[in-house]
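Workshop exercise sheet. Pairs work together: one partner reads the sequence aloud, the other fills in the structure field after running the prediction. Swap roles for the next sheet.
Pair: D.N. / O.F.
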Amino acid sequence: MVDEHTEYPEFRLRLPNGGPVAHGRHTDAKGTNGSRKFVVGPGEPVRPEVVPSFATRVASAHRLREELIRQGRIMPSKNWPTWLETTDTITFNSSSEAAAVLTGRSANGWVDWKTEDNRPLGDFMPGMWMGPNRPWLIRGSNVTGLDLVQRLWLPEGRVSLAASRLRQGVQQGTSKDDLRTFVQEDYESTATYGQKQQLVEELHAFLSRVKPGDTVCTISGGELYVGEITGEAEQTESEDRRSNLRRPVEWQPTGYPYDDLPEELQQKLSIQHDVVDLSSVQALVEGLGLSDEELVEEAEAIERDPSGEIPALVARRELELPDPTDELAAELLVHDTEWLREVRDLLADERQLVLYGPPGTGKTYLALKLAEFLGGGPEQVKLIQFHPSYAYEDFVEGFRPKEDPKTKEVAFRITAGPLRELAALAGREGNRHIPHFLIIDEINRANLAKVFGELYFLLEYRNKSVQLPYSGDDFALPKNLFVIGTMNTADRSIALVDTAMRRRFAFVELSPRTEPTSGLLRRWLADEGKDSEPADLLDALNSRIDDADFRIGPSYLMKKGVYREGGLERTWRTKILPLLEEHHYGEGVDIEKRYGLAALRESLA
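Structure field:
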């Protein structure tokens, strides 16, 4: 710990919008909740106005500021016209409280107060990690049966971690190796191997990674409470050993209903660990309780690059699937733009969709083109194909032989599958409002229950996360990741798809008996300036096939080779009739007499 009489340099705070510079000094004296006090002397400038969110976001600092003005300890300045200034020495409970009162907004004193050579206050504190501040989830609503959030954390301005058997003398900054030894010895007979590993990670995060100025979140009574870490960790002798390790926190006065939180934030909050890094959703946490206008005003009250975007506003951008156009319908030869809009709406509502129908109905082509349009380009689209030997390890993650680039030795290592790769791309900050598409061709040819595994749950509950069995990582499906499957009903009827699959996917039929497929070939021939006979022949052929799942799609007759000399006859003989022979295998049907070109042309004549 820092010596009681540590000498700190003078710290400075630049007030917003080109304002004057305030000065203050850090102390080792601790306030009621363990925060280190900060002193500002007389004659220091104070911003005259506050941001609209100040009273609700930093209620205690707002009340203190109003009281100091009422007492005359902050008054209109003689040195800086239109500004305020302190009239005597004011001792604040923390550096963040001092910065908030002087600037009239939520502030992080560990970063905002700087020395003359521009070193932040946090650099002078023990056990402080370098790098930007980050938000954390620390659970306290059910610690061996007690809700410490309501009982201890909120009333006393603290956050804690239970370490009932951990030896005394553990300090902030203790290395992970030392913690691993302590936990192994102190919990030898009271915790499993996995529990010990998890405890080491949580203790290390709480003692060494969490630092003053970080945001802390916790859940209690269906609400999310948010605060700022205002001091170092300390180990105490609590009576019930439920809160041995503590840190001081300045909590926001009110919580946020859990059900109203953004979906991505709910995903991270559903991770079942006591300490969770929320850096990937930091912008969402920072924007809680603030309107867009308030976020802009807060940003204007900070010395920042005016050309940069406000992260919290970027994170709020709505995910939208663009409206299909008449031009797209014409390109895809779809009979009606409204049909495309319906598919778009199904994707927006369900996020998973299957295009099913007989072979040759253009399912994969339509899926690709529609995904590229809705996602804004091919770089947001990934296509994979299922087959009977396709497995969970191919789709999500699994062990794969990998060569070490240095030793050239081959070993089995956990490798991410296409789903994890695309989910990582879609979940990046700045990408979350951009639709990304995974197209699964021939989705019904694999054992879906084995391939999807626990992802069946995530397809339905996008606001939850699960722990993956190989890596142990917590994984969730981003809300901007859409899945389009294609299903060939000649291989497997849609009636054979299991209920779990049916419930999680919307199903759209592409069949020669209905639009947009039934008239597709005729529209294509008209666009190409070709004779309509192939469309007539196809209609005649399908009228003779009783089973709708085995009718022939138009794609077979939409290729250049069909329209070279003898091409139609060749395609009919080598592509279409073999399918029908397989369909009628063992039935004694004369395929040529029933489905041959000569028979069909005679019927048309």
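Discussion prompt: The chain has 24 helices and 24 strands. What would you look at next?
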